[in-house]
Amino acid sequence: MKPLRIEGAWVHEPRLFADRRGSFHEWFTGADFRESVGQDLGLAQANCSVSAPGVLRGVHFADVPPGQAKYVTCVRGAVLDVVADLRTGSPTFGEWETVRLDDDSHRCVYLSEGLGHAFLSLATDSTVVYLCSTGYTPHAEHGIHPLDTTLGIDWPVTGDPVLSEKDAAAPTLAAAERRGLLPSYEACLALRSASSTEGNASASA
What we know:
The protein is of the alpha+beta class.
C-alpha cells in the first residue's frame, strides 16, 4: 500500500494473475494492511453500491469518535474515487485527492476516520464495494455538498451529475465548519493511535 498525499489515506495496487480462465488478485491482505497503516482494519459492515454513469455519491463522513474508516474498490465498471480532508487543524484541510478505481487495475483506497469520501460513476452499473470499520449510525453521519465551489473538486462530468436528495441538500464545507460538524485532526490522530495501541496489545497477548 502506498500513502496518498493526504495523511491517513492509502492506495493498494494488487498484483493480478491472469490466464485463459480469467484472473485472480488479493484485494485485501491483513498483514500488508497492518504493515502499511500501523493497525488492523476492524470490519463491522460491508457495503455494495451500483451506479449509473454520472451518478455522484458523497462527500460523506462520520463523527469522530466513533468515526468510520473505509476500504474501497470497484469490482465492475469504473469510478473516480475522491478522498477529501475535512479534518479541522489538518495541514491539508480542504484539499482532496482522486484515484480511478475500475475492474481493470482493481486498485483499492483506504481512508481513515475523519476523511470525506465520494465517487463519480464513469460507466454503466459501476459496482463499488467497501469494508467499514464501524456500522452505519444515522445521527453520526454527515455530508458536504460535492459541488461546493470552495472545496472545488474537479468532477469529469458533462452536465449536472445525479445526486441523491440528501447529498444535494448537504452544506458547504464552510457551513459545516461553522456548525461544528467537522471532526478535528487531533481527535482523528488520537483515535488511530488508540486503535494501534489496542491492536499491538492484542497481538502480544
